[in-house]
Amino acid sequence: xxxxxxxxxxxxxxxxxxxxxxxAPFHRRMNRDGQAWKSKERLTVDQSRLSVRHxxxxxxxxxxxxxxxxxxxxxxxxxxxxxxxxxxGVCVYFTLNKKPRCLPCDRWIRAADNLAAIAKYVEAMRxxxxxxxxxxxxxxxxxxxxxxxxxxxxxxxxxxxxxAQFLAEAVGRPLSKPEFYSDAEAFRTAYRTAVxxxxxxxxxxxxxxxxxxxxxxxxxxxxxxxxGK
Length: 229
Fold this sequence. Notes:
Radius of gyration: 19 Å
Largest sheet: 3 strands, antiparallel
Number of domains: 2
Number of helices: 7
């Protein structure tokens, strides 16, 4: 596996950068009087770092490198108490099942939140494996190797045009761009139809590439229509 730097950020060249970052919904979970509750305090870099490493350890990953523009401690880990960098992107490199993997995120304004998002992504992957609806290979079925590298990353988000084309083909009818672009309900109806066709439950529990591509298409069109299911 290629050695990636913890600092500065080693962003995968094939992965597009987020242009419109948002505030993340993540908050600290605290304990008071023996009960867990969610504080409005923002996550710290150290809390997010520990979450990522914990989730990847449970997944069975090794060789974890957290790459960012955060300043580093003497041990090479990101410092917690520091200003948010101008570029808050985070990319976590690791080895899983003897294959190099990479999970990048820069959707959120704060580096700590991008790191937390990666931790939540890995947690969701573990949940699907734990409950028998997928495998490690299935989780990475929609991932591909970087050009000129053996590191495997998620496929980039679809453009709106690509998403509309994929969704039309997924439900087996000609593409009507104005319909998907101007009518959010038409998009949602087509998506629900496609889910019935490509959901793992309808395909022997197999998470196919078509199912993962459907989620990419839906994410793109949801963003175009301003969010929502």
